[in-house]
Amino acid sequence: MLLKKAGLKFEVVKSDYEENNNENISPENLVLKHALGKARDVAEKMKGAVVIGADTIVVIDDEVIGKAKDDEDAKRMLKKLSARTHKVITCFVIIDTKAKKEKARTVTTKVTFKHLSDEAIEEYVSRGEYVGKAGAYAYQGAAVRFMEKVEGSKSNVLGLPMEEFMGELEYFIE
């Protein structure tokens, strides 16, 4: 969605890279490792292309909150985020396979949630929007009503900090 809005032409190629959020490294190094793994895996398949890989995590109390396994896990995550500030950390990697250039950048945004009632959490989880989303919420959907404050890149919360990304991408496009 973000790349389309920016007017970029692209092809989505699924990476076979397996994420592991249980590693004992900093959140910033974790998203870097995942973004690099995804981008390099696809770059091996796409010779002569500019490849983009990204990873986003949510962090609260130094705990990485990944994607919810099921409804109960999503409810647990949202209760933990309720009335608190957390960080959304995204790393994107750009690889030019022809020029053999690679650039990685990490961006952090602070998000503060309003207090979420059990009813609001139940209703949100029943929508299924949380599936596949770090922190069990989709900023572009109904969860926008949970936001009290967003400090930093709003598009980062969607999964790609577009201002920073477009600034880096200009060095890869002829």
Question: Could you explain how this protein is built, in words?
Answer:
- The chain has a 5-stranded antiparallel sheet.
- α3 packs across α4.
- With 174 residues, the protein is of the alpha+beta class.
- It is elongated and about 50 Å long.
- β3 and β4 (101-113) form a beta hairpin.
- It is built from 6 helices and 5 strands, in the order ααββαββαβαα.
- The chain has helices spanning 2-5, 27-45, 71-81, 118-127, 154-158, 162-169; strands at 50-60, 63-65, 85-96, 101-113, 147-151.
- The mean pLDDT is 92.
The Rg value, from CA coordinates, equals 17 Å
Strand content: 25-35%
**Order of strands, widest sheet:** 2-1-3-4-5
* Number of E-type strands: 5
The total count of helices amounts to 6
Gap from first CA to last CA: 23 Å
Question: What's the pLDDT, averaged over the residues?
Answer: 92
Helix amount, in percent?
A: 25-40%
Largest sheet: 5 strands, antiparallel
What is the structure about, briefly put?
By secondary structure, the chain is of the alpha+beta class.
What keyword list fits this structure?
alpha+beta, 6 helices, 5-stranded antiparallel beta sheet, 174 residues, 33% helix
SSE blueprint:
Elements: H1 2-5, H2 27-45, E1 50-60, E2 63-65, H3 71-81, E3 85-96, E4 101-113, H4 118-127, E5 147-151, H5 154-158, H6 162-169
Antiparallel strand pairs: 1-2, 1-3, 3-4, 4-5
Helix pairs in contact: 3-4
